[in-house]
Structures are given as structure tokens and as C-alpha cells.
Amino acid sequence: MEVNTTASTAIPKIISCDDIPSSPSSPSSPTSNSASKIPNPLADELLARCLKVSDEITLLEKKLLQRLPPKQRSKKGNLPIELRHFKNAILVEQRLLENLSYSPPTPKTQHSLRSSNLKFLESVWSIAKTCSGLQVIFRTVQLFDHPTDNAAKLRGKEKKELKRKKTPVQVDIIAQNGLEWIKVAGLSEKRLETEFAKARWEAEGFKDEDDEDGQSENGDKLDHEENGGKDINQTILEFQHDSDAFSLVKSARSMVLAAQQTRVQYLHPEITIVLPNIHYDPQNPQLGSATHTLITAILSTGARVQTSNRNIISPTPPPGDESTLTDNFGNAITNRSQSLHPNHPPLASSSSSSTQTSPESVAEAALTSLSITSDPITLITPKILLDCTILLALVSDLSHESVAEQPIFHRHILQQVRAENEEPLLPHWVFPSIEGREMICTFDAYKRFKEIVDIVGSESEKLRANALVWGGTGRDWRHPSPSKLPLKSGSNIINGGNKDTGITFTEDGEPLLPDGRTRTSLLSTLQSLSRHQVPKTLKLPITVVDSLESQIMSHNPVAAKIGPELSVVNRSSLFTAWEMGITIVTTNGSVVKRLEWLVEENRIRDDDVGPKVHLLAIARSLVGKMKKGTDILVEG
């Protein structure tokens, strides 16, 4: 995505009207000039705030670009955070304010400025900067008019009718890597109380008219039940629900319904309604107040509510800190702990109370955090499982050496050679995903990997394979998988399989293999066989563990149903990572897509989830002995 780095410089400079030279060819009277030179301070102030938001967006885009591989930086729409619609809204507001800044402060222009959409845009931007895993600002999702459980089975006319039967739902912010949808409402407490007072007044007037209509012919009033059965409080509540304030409740309900028709990482997104201009204390709710009535109505839809004092109220509060958000995996969601009001500075910590932090540095830190947490790598667990495709990419000559195109190469090898020359796989994609993390692989994946390396691998590829993976003491990959043997101890299963790796540790805590090799020597060997810089934080060796597929299939009915649909090697890696609750790193996109489909088709409960997967959609094969017309050996 191309970023306009001169966005702030391309904007016309705001100058004082006194600095505009008068035209020498048209001498004007003081009266006529004074009308055209009156400045508009309010417009200038709003424009300066608008330009500040625009500059911060540009800075965020620069930070996001810096985190992308060089080849990806020139592609449009490639940033991990989608800002296009929000940028357009800011640009529209900026142009309006630029025009008004040169106009006299007439009642018409002042009304336009007071009704500016900038305050809402600032609130959205301020809240977005406090989010973790930000993905989108301003997106329209679709709410289908009826359940779509059988949508995949519809064909022809029925499918076209289904597409027409949907309602657009506006989502202001999508964060937590898609697991949280946020709606920002600029409703103030004063406006809320005014609307509720108006609703009460209208309800009482309606009740008086209803009472007059409810009199009998002799002038006596009918009983309450005979007159419709509604008391004044119920009538007031109905009028409140028809007010503009309660349109927010309708929006929350639509978002919740749309989220129930959407799955991200096997889960339904959570809905949060943010009220940055309303203060609410759940410990002192002031029952019957306008604020309490509105928040109770929002919570009844299944959405959460966050107010200006940073409290996050859930329909079913989690144990402990009520302001803590968790996703359906049980992972804690970062709380938006900064002030939600765009004009309020973040609360200073006690450690820095004596040091004043400039707004620029605060914004810089917030944007840096946004750029980091938007990276999918942050979702990878500290311990990871590598499947056969990643192991092959880690040892391939294509990944480590400058391989020239040869006419004897298979066409897929030629494509990979060209892709590697344009964008190296290891430094830009693989190493950032695995460095600093403990790495394991299953025996089935290791066995398949060793078979491929022994058959088609070059000498350098075999040396890399020997430096990368440690199969364990006294275990031969040519023998049947240990997962077919009787189960071992419970602690052994929980820790991911075989504990008899033969690895000890030096006094410095460095792994020591039985053959005398250490992590330092393994890294040195790998570095000598690569043109790329090998990270010092790469935790070699990759250790081999027993498969846990039988364990998870014994207690997880979803895994038991979909297990026969996967190959032995794929099932071994995916199910072991699933059972251990760790991330599996793979380049096998077709298997990942099929797994997601299988989980959806065979889920038993709504909260059933599959394994955590980090997909690198760029594969590498071994080039060693590959000839034209030969099928590439890939994971079965």
C-alpha cells in the first residue's frame, strides 16, 4: 500500500487574514475589506486538530510499512490495518474545515462548525489507539435476515435471494485480531437526560389523552386493566425505547446478531459499545437514572459497555477484575486503560509523575504499540510445533543459497527460485515467526521429513537437517511411529510426548546433545550453510515428540470425527498442537483451509475451537535432485 508521506505538507498553509496582501489594482474601502478579512478561530482550531489526526495516521502507516518485507511495501492494500475508509472520512472533514477557515464566522458557518463530525472521528481514533490487534477502522458487515446454517448448500436462485436478504451493519473498530467489534457513540449525559425527560413528558401527555378516552359514558374512569393494562412507567419506557438514544441499543443488537453469523479463529466476535462521554460506576449504578437505563438495555443485547471512566461492564462479568476482557480461548484481552476522551491526556503513572510526557511522545508510543500488536506473529505461543512443510523450508537450498534457474528444474521449482530472488523467505517470514520460541515436531512429521531429505536432498540440505532437528537418543526414524506404541505416563503426555531426548545442559544452561554439540555449534553450522543471517535467538535443536492424536481423539468428539479425514502426517502435527494448546506453524494452506471447514461442519458446541495455526503461505521444496517432469515430494 502506497503511503502519501507528504500528506501534511500538501495541505494549504493556514495564514492570518492580516497577512494576505490587498490587490493593488482594486483599492477597497475599509468596510468591504474588514468583512472579507475576519478570521474564523473556531475553524482554525478544528482544522489544526483534524491535521493532527491526519499526521498520526500517516505516521502509523509508515510504522506498518517498516514492519513489512520490502517486496510487500509497494503493494496497495497490504497493510495489516485497514485505514482507507477512516482516512477518507478525515479528508472530507479536512476539506470542509479548510473552506470554513477562510469564511467569516456567520451564524451559518458557526452552526456548520459546531455540527462537525470531527469530534466523533477523534473519539474513534483515540479509542483505536488504545486497542490491541487493531485490524480495521470503519467497516460494514452484513446481517442476514435469517440464519445461514444451510447457506453453503443453497444453489442458484435460492443463493441469490439469500444474498439480497441482508442488512448492512456499521462497525467502527475491529480489534483483538478480529475477535472484538467496537461501536463508538458520542452520546453525552446531558443529551441522554434531555431525551429521557422528553420521553417522560410525551408519555405523560399520551397517558392523559388515553385516560380521557378511557372514561365511561357516565364520566367514570375505567379500570387499569380495561384501559389497556399499561401503567405510566411502562408507557415511559416505550417512549424511551423510541428515542434517538435507544437507537444505539438497536445498533448493538444488530452487531450482536451479525457477530453470531460470523466466525474468526473459530469464534464469534465480542461486541463492545464505547461511551466516551458518559461516566458510569457499576458499584454505584444509581438505579432508574437515564445512564443506568441505557447501559442495562445495551447489556441485555449481549454486548459489553465501556464508559469514560474505563470501566468495561459485561453482561456476565468474569470472575475477578470486571474490567478484564477475555476471548473464548481464555486469553486475556488488553484493556483500553487510557482515557477515552480525545482531549484528555492519558493518566500519568506514579513512577513518572515528576516527569511531564509530551503529547507527541505519547502518540508515538501508542502508534508503535498499534503497529506491533497488529502483527499476527504476536499471537504465536512461546512454544510452537513445526510441521513437515516448515522443516523442508528451513533446510532447502532455495531458502539458503542463490540458486540459478536450470532448464531441468520442475516448473514449481522455477517459480520458487524466482520468488526467493524477489523476496527471501527465511529472513522476512520464517525466522520472525520462530525465533525465541521453543520448537518441537512430531515423530511422524520428522519421519516424513527425513525420508524426503534422504531421497532428494543435496549434501548441504542433509547437513542443515542434521543441525536443525534432534530425533532423540536411540530412536530411528525408519522405525514405526512411537505414537502407535502403548501410552506413556500422564506427565509425559502433557509435556508433549517423549522426554528421553538425551539432551542435557551445560553450566550456562545451554542445551548439550549426546554427541557433544551445543546450541552455539548448531547455529554456527547453520550459519556456515546460509547466505542469510541466522538469528542468535533461534532455539535449536528442534526436538521430536510423540504424537498426541490418540489422546485428543479420545476426549474431543470434534477431533474424533474429523481425524479420519486427514492424512497421518497432517493429523499427527495438527492434533498434537491442538492437544497441547500451542501454535502450529505451517505453509500448507490447503490443509489449514480444509481443517477449518471440517471443524465448522462437525462442531458439537458453539464454543468448539480447532488448533491455533500460523500460516505462512509461501512454501519451499528441496532442489537437490529434482528433475523436469518429476513430481515434487510434499507432505502427504
Short description:
Residues 218-228 have a biased composition (Basic and acidic residues). Residues 386-469 form the DUF1308 domain. This protein is of the alpha/beta class.
How would you describe this structure to a colleague?
The structure is a single chain. The protein is built from 24 helices and 16 strands. It is α/β, with parallel strands linked by helices. The protein folds into 3 domains: 1-12 and 34-116, no CATH class; 126-187 and 245-349 and 358-379, no CATH class; 386-615, no CATH class. It has a 6-stranded mixed β-sheet, with helices on both faces. The protein has a 6-stranded parallel β-sheet with strand order 11-14-10-9-15-16. A two-stranded antiparallel sheet has the order 7-8. The protein is elongated, with a radius of gyration of 32 Å. Residues 1-38, 221-229, 319-355, 483-499 and 626-636 have low confidence and may be disordered.
Main sheet attributes: strand count, strand direction, barrel closure = 6 strands, mixed
Lateral strand order in the biggest sheet: 1-2-3-4-5-6
Q: What's the tally of helices? A: 24
Ends apart, CA distance between termini = 37 Å
How many structural domains? 3
Give a count of the beta strands, DSSP E runs of length 2 or more. 16
Query: Helix/strand/pairing class, anyone?
Result: alpha/beta
What is Rg? Answer: 32 Å
Beta percentage is 5-15%
Mean pLDDT: 77
Instruction: Categorize the overall geometry.
Output: elongated
Low-confidence stretches: 1-38, 221-229, 319-355, 483-499, 626-636
Residue share in helix:
40-55%
